[in-house]
Amino acid sequence: MPVIRIDLTLPFALFSPSLLNQELSVYIHIPFCSSICGYCDFPRVRLENESTIDSYLDALFVEMSEMGKVFGKFPVSTVYIGGGTPSVLGKKLFKNLIPVVRDNFSVDRLSEFTVELNPDDIDTELLSGLSDNGVDRISIGVQTFHNPRRLGRRHDSATALSAIKTIRDSGFTNFNVDLMFGLPDTEGNELERNLDILTELDVPHISVYGLTVSENSLWKKLIDEEKLIIPDENQWIREYQQVDKKLKSSGYHHYEISNFSKPGLESIHNMVYWNQKNYLGLGSGAASRIGDLRFSGLFPPEKYIETVKNENFRLMDIIENIEKVSELERNEEIIFTGIRLLDGIDFPLNWFKSHEFESVHSKFVREGLLNFNGKTTSLTEKGLFLSDFIALQLIETLDTVIN
Predict the structure, then answer these.
(1) Are 206 and 143 in contact (CB under 8 A)?
(2) Does residue 42 sit in helix, strand or coil?
(3) Whether residue 165 sits in one domain with residue 247
(4) Distance between CA 373 and CA 54 in Å, rounded?
(5) 311 within domain boundaries
(6) Residues 276, 290: contact at Cβ < 8 Å?
(7) Taking the CB of residue 204, how many other CB atoms lie within 10 A of it?
(8) Are residues 332 and 267 in the same domain?
(9) Which pLDDT value is given to residue 149?
(10) DSSP assignment of 80-143, as one string?
(11) Looking at residue 368, what is its pLDDT?
């Protein structure tokens, strides 16, 4: 893919027409949650007033119209509506939001259209409306089937099980369930039972994340005050090994560090991020990357809404954190995201001309942490548990070489 270079002093309206042959993925952010999970500090806010939804959608539709003037002719390969909790929109998801997406972007040849739903928002009418409007993949955050409310989730285990059944009965053959391990206050063999439930239900895609307590989250404060105890690193590794063994033995393709799917049902949209392809984020707090340009939508949503309402509104008023990705940063991203893919990544051959990089890379191969066939680099099973360390060592070495 040719590198896109954009003068940041220019408004978006002056993007070069030559970019129009670039494939694009679109992410739409709904930053509202009815309840806030204790470990999370994603760009989201608690939904206090239902009228805020309409105000937010009005502002989002203005942004989509303006962005459509710039990117509307790009062939869109995937759409992902995430959050937050997109299902707080209810029927407005398919009655209001999706039609505006289709009006402003070239989505005739979509390969995947995903919507995140909360288990207790799911019913046949919502799923039917989404399916009728082109949504072919659902993602739900269950996290655990054993007292999920202790994590701040709104649903209980019975609701989660019912949601999975309803999704399948509604004709969706591709859907994802999020699961977590490394949780505090686990109940006996909780993780084993969670995995048994998902494999017995033959869920087509499972994303399994080790608990990461965000710096600005409620749980971080409780941990610092020793009011909440989370598993140590050794327990975390044992649980990840348990996940990997169980799901692979149950016929799942482990294609990314945290993601397992039945063959052919990998998340196409998420592969865009891991392969550093173009994606456009719409909405408050949504991140974008177009070529070597990165930016995000104005956050929090109250500020985003008020800015769009201004009679002198310009698209650039709701764009923040604009930066060009340097060659060094681009190489770092290739390593950090690419190493997560278990099928491996082809590092640029000129990197291996550096004695320092080749030496560190070879050391990891000798230690059994990386596989290398002369072209593709991939993590070994042993290397999976040290992926961040490996990536950082390769990045630091490459940074030294380039500098």
Answers:
(1) no
(2) coil
(3) yes
(4) 54
(5) no
(6) no
(7) 20
(8) no
(9) 72
(10) EEEES-GGGGTTHIIIIIHHHHHHHSB-TT-SEEEEEE-GGG--HHHHHHHHHTT--EEEEEEE
(11) 98
Structure-token pair, residue 342 = 């278990």
Tokens matching residue 115: 């919507």
User: Residue 363 is part of which domain span?
Assistant: 327-402
SS3 319: strand
pLDDT value of position 26: 98
Give pLDDT, residue 10: 44
In a domain, 298, yes or no: no
The amino acid present at 26, given as its one-letter code, is V
| Per-residue model confidence (pLDDT) at position 9 | 44
CB 206 within 8 A of CB 165: no
> Which residues, 6+ apart, have CB-to-CB distance to 48 below 8 Å?
none
Strands 293-297, 259-261: pairing is unpaired
Structural domain tally of the chain? 2
Q: Is residue 128 part of a domain?
A: yes
Whole-angstrom CA distances from 39 to 108, 213, 223, 303 are 38, 5, 10, 25
pLDDT along the chain (403 residues), means of 10: 40 53 91 74 78 96 94 94 94 97 96 96 97 98 84 80 97 97 82 97 96 76 81 89 97 97 98 94 96 93 96 93 90 93 93 93 98 96 93 91 71
For residue 279, give the 3-state DSSP assignment.
strand
pTM over 0.70? The answer is yes
CATH of residue 395's domain is 1.10.10
What would the DSSP string read from start to end of 182-216? Answer: S-SS--SSHHHHHHHHHHHTT-SEEEEEE----TT
381 domain residue, yes or no: yes
In single-letter form, the type of residue at position 16 comes to S
The domain boundary residue, chosen from 274, 289, 319: 274
Maximum distance among all Cα pairs of the chain, rounded to whole angstroms: 63
pLDDT at 12: 55
Pairing state of beta strands 319-324 and 293-297?
Answer: antiparallel
What 3-state DSSP class applies to 259? strand
